[in-house]
Write a structure and sequence with these properties.
single chain; alpha+beta; Cytidine Deaminase, domain 2; 4 strands
Length: 116
Amino acid sequence: MQEANLVQGLPKKKRPQCSTGVRAANGQTATGHSGMGNNGVVEDLARSFPPNDNDCGCAELNAISNAMDAGIDLRGAVIITVEVRGPESPTGKHGQRKAACSVCAAVIEELEMIEC
């Protein structure tokens, strides 16, 4: 994912762990990164589900927030998240698909989105 590659070179303390892309049925897109914050609607929706260790800091929630803020219709939109690792990381995880956590999965389902 291009967005993950764009942030890969950031210093470790500033580099997100994940990057998410959203593509609406009409082709509009939005992206987001872990640790970047959410709008109030998405934050409230996420907090209505049983919490987990991610404390609503996921890339999926940030991307959904960015899409909503841009007026993108999310019903039927496709969402995918990938890992972000530094260029010297030996793990091989950079760019690998990452499944949504329990809270994000619930938000995605509630908004009638499709996780890939």
